[in-house]
Amino acid sequence: MAGLLKESMRIKMYMEGTVNGHYFKCEGEGDGNPFTGTQSMRIHVTEGAPLPFAFDILAPCCEYGSRTFVHHTAEIPDFFKQSFPEGFTWERTTTYEDGGILTAHQDTSLEGNCLIYKVKVLGTNFPADGPVMKNKSGGWEPCTEVVYPENGVLCGRNVMALKVGDRRLICHLYTSYRSKKAVRALTMPGFHFTDIRLQMPRKKKDEYFELYEASVARYSDLPEKAN
Fold first, then answer.
1. Exposed end of the chain (fewer CB within 10 Å): N or C?
2. Tell me, what CATH number does 91's domain have?
3. In a domain, 69, yes or no
4. What is the rounded CA–CA span in Å between residue 142 and residue 123?
5. Is residue 196 part of a domain?
């Protein structure tokens, strides 16, 4: 429940996985305000550094995976905050237009004033001469996730654009969010949108990265036609 969450919450993240067969581990620490929808994270690669691929493909598993820090307007039930103290999980498949695929599973739990994230990722089929494996990407454009409930699961569908020089590499994201609480204990939100701006203000030698995200959940601003 939202009462367990404070205006300032800490974050700890533990990530491991492979991308095109390269094994790595990352650890992150950060903080944010769950009620204003802003968060920051500082991430170190603890194994497998320097990464031989663009960290940009992992960034959405960190911040865009940190769904407690989404500002929900008053009329939208907050699925994620309702899920505490038990927490929630999500699974995501990201398909890039050049054939690369990234799958991820994340577990979110709460320990005192700290949110704990455990993330496992698997990246396959990224072209050796593509921008991901050549580390030629330059961050993400802002995007909007379409969110809706289905059989007790919150589904997210998104199209993201990775900046590559003067062009964009497009990818499609399919996410399933599952509360650890029984569905009957939740008030599920209706169809809505989540606007996301994910940035990387700083990185160092492909082994240290700083991320910032702002996100807000909203209904459509467009009025319905009167009868």
1. C
2. 2.40.155.10
3. yes
4. 23
5. yes
